[in-house]
């Protein structure tokens, strides 16, 4: 399974990505971390070219890791700056790898998401995420404390993967999500 975190920089999505990776026993691939390792001391804003290159490297690493271990869960914190429309490409990418794609959109009411109703903590998204099945897109309110936001994300993933497809080894891709939900309580 591939879990892609989407949202603006000021929503603490990187902290959520780390929490999800820890709780799910998943591998986190982060554009920010890769940038720091490959370009230490580079304090300049990412150019569009370098930003795209870093994202491409992370997708190659995702493909390689899932080729080696198809049952692995990958958390991608690799959103291209200003490129929300990349989600349909990620959906095609995940299908080519025979992996489920889940998109977790991190929002902060009062900032970019005031127009969204807050009646449900996780719900299908609109717009550019329409290509992703509705039960695989999740909205997480990042104005909640970090532990609560993590629980919301885990709950969304748990609900979405409850009836997920079986893997080649007979296990369900959701087994790690269920175990993480149990351990978190």
How does this model look, in words?
This protein is an alpha/beta fold and 185 residues long. It has helices at 13-24, 31-38, 48-68, 87-96, 146-161, 175-184; strands spanning 2-6, 27-30, 74-77, 101-107, 137-141. 42% of the residues lie in helices and 14% in strands. Strands 2-3-1-4-5 form a 5-stranded parallel beta sheet, with helices on both faces. Helix 5 packs antiparallel against helix 6. The longest helix has 21 residues, at 48-68. It is globular, with a radius of gyration of 16 Å. The protein starts with a strand and ends with a helix.
Total DSSP E strands: 5
Give the structural class: alpha/beta
Mean pLDDT score: 77
Radius of gyration: 16 Å
Throw out a few tags for this protein:
185 residues, alpha/beta, 5-stranded parallel sheet, 6 helices, 42% helix, globular, disordered C terminus
Short overview:
The protein is α/β, with parallel strands linked by helices.
How are the secondary structure elements laid out?
Blueprint (H helix, E strand, L loop, with lengths): L1 E5 L6 H12 L2 E4 H8 L9 H21 L5 E4 L9 H10 L4 E7 L29 E5 L4 H16 L13 H10 L1
Parallel strand pairs: 1-3, 1-4, 2-3, 4-5
Helix pairs in contact: 1-5, 5-6
């Amino acid at each position: 399974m591939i879990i892609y975190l989407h949202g603006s920089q000021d929503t603490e999505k990187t902290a959520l990505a780390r929490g999800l990776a820890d709780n799910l026993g998943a591998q986190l691939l982060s554009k920010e971390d890769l940038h720091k390792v490959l370009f230490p001391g580079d304090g300049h804003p990412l150019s569009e070219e370098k930003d795209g290159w870093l994202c491409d490297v992370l997708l190659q690493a995702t493909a390689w890791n899932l080729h080696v271990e198809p049952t692995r869960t990958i958390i991608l914190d690799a959103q291209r700056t200003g490129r929300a429309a990349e989600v349909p490409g990620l959906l095609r990418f995940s299908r080519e790898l025979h992996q489920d794609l889940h998109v977790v959109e991190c929002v902060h009411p009062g900032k970019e998401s005031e127009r969204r109703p807050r009646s449900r903590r996780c719900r299908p998204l609109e717009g550019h995420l329409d290509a992703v099945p509705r039960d695989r897109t999740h909205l997480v309110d990042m104005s909640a404390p970090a532990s609560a936001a993590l629980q919301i994300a885990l709950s969304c993933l748990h609900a979405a993967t409850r009836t997920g497809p079986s893997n080649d080894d007979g296990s369900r891709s959701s087994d790690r999500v269920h175990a993480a939900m149990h351990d978190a309580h």
